[in-house]
Amino acid sequence: MNSVGYLKHLEAVHKNAPIARNVDILFREERVGDLEFLRLYQDCIEKSGTPVSGWKTFRRAQRALNLARYFDHSLSVEGERAECGLFADFSALLLARVAKMRDPAFDG
Fold it and tell me: Which of 20, 33, 91, 94 is the 20 to 30 Å CA partner of 59?
């Protein structure tokens, strides 16, 4: 099976899976500082218009959680930070929300 066929297969397999329910189970109690991660993640996905394929949902959420926590920790280290996203600004929005949580004066 070529890569296009494999991606179509993954989409078909996950099409009717209760993905939202499973994401809720996995991430509903996760936090980044004072923020509820799942609410933060879903809001940033929606506001940025970032599409997430069913089969990528869990990996995307886990990577976002890792990024947000790592970035939050980095805010205690002196120096500048840069986010170099490539697509729909999801990561930039996510990190801006974490920065604002730590510094209400942050204006992005």
Answer: 33
